[in-house]
Amino acid sequence: MDVSTFVPVIGVIVNITRGFDCCSQMISLRTEGGIVNFVIDPQTMVIECRRLRAGMRVAAFYDSSLPVPLIFPPQYRAQIIAVIGRNEQVMLNYFDRNLLAGDQSLRLNLGGNTMIQSVNGQSYTCSPGENVLMVFYSVTTRSIPPQTTPRKIVVLC
């Protein structure tokens, strides 16, 4: 899965409505830059298959290489959605076998409390390196590259 063109939008869900058909929904996120709408359809990957509700803080990733309608507020088709904690950050990137991000912007240090799982929430028992990972973390070091011990890693097999 090539995620190099995926762009995250982080915000709080303010509204969920029916989409263009019975199998899609439209969610509105309140972000620092204003309202952003996302279409969620059967191809949208919702991490851990969580049921989305108003008030949840989420990271919605869209593919910046796809065309979008020129409307306001902006509207994108969500590729991946993850529920994130209040002071938590999320990163989606390819990580090598040394757990260094493909763009060398973050290095992971696995801790005893780091949960490693698959997209549907099942335990992932192999090494997470050399995969596309969604990393949930709160603090990093000031080193180059920054390092963190993530709370959770989701492996996108």
Question: What does this entry show, briefly?
Answer:
The chain has strands spanning 6-18, 25-31, 34-40, 45-46, 57-63, 75-83, 89-95, 107-108, 115-118, 131-137, 147-148, 152-156. With 157 residues, the chain is mostly beta strands.
Shape: globular
Strand content bin = over 45%
As a whole number of angstroms, the C-alpha radius of gyration is: 16 Å
Which parts are unreliable, with pLDDT below 50 for 5 consecutive residues or more?
none
Structure commentary:
The chain is mainly beta and 157 residues long. 0% of the residues lie in helices and 46% in strands. The protein has strands at residues 6-18, 25-31, 34-40, 45-46, 57-63, 75-83, 89-95, 107-108, 115-118, 131-137, 147-148, 152-156. The strands form 3 sheets. A 5-stranded mixed beta barrel has the order 1-2-3-6-5. The mean pLDDT is 95.
Q: How is the secondary structure organized here?
A:
Blueprint: E1 6-18, E2 25-31, E3 34-40, E4 45-46, E5 57-63, E6 75-83, E7 89-95, E8 107-108, E9 115-118, E10 131-137, E11 147-148, E12 152-156
Parallel strand pairs: 3-6, 4-6, 8-11, 9-12
Antiparallel strand pairs: 1-2, 1-5, 2-3, 5-6, 7-10, 10-12
